[in-house]
Task: structure prediction
Amino acid sequence: MSTFLGTKVQIFDVVSAAVTPVGPCLSPSGITRSVAGLKAEAGQVDKIIGMASKPPLPPPTPTRQRPKEDDGGSVVLERLTQKTKPPQMYQVVMLNDDFTPMEFVVVVIQEFFNKDRETATQIMLKIHLDGKGVCGVYSRDVAATKVEQVQAAARQAGHPLQCVSEPVE
Result:
């Protein structure tokens, strides 16, 4: 028998159907609990007279709110399907100069624009005769990358070849 907060408390532990006192125990709310009325008959416990706390309450069920009656002043919006525009396309244009060899221009067009030798030669002749020629049409980011690749290759080879991208109209 123990004393806790001025109250005599007897707590038991059931081990192998024997009744053994174990001391006071606190519940989460600070109230002393006790297990009493344990009875051992023929090696079995008949009943445990329970805890001093209340059993847990079931969770509250959410109440459903019914929609209010329509007073005729409601507005219903219709869903509009949105159509996306295709991205703005850019053409990669090479500019003619008097110093870059024609063969280098053909190789660059083949390497960076995936053209065969005949198509690359036709584009190179257009650049040579008209002053500029379209090598390909791409989205903005791809076109910018192609321009950078061509200019880097020209710089590395020591040629003044110029390449620009401009929006397709």
Remarks:
- Confidence is low (pLDDT under 50) at residues 13-48.
- The first helix runs from residue 102 to 113.
- The longest strand covers residues 132-139.
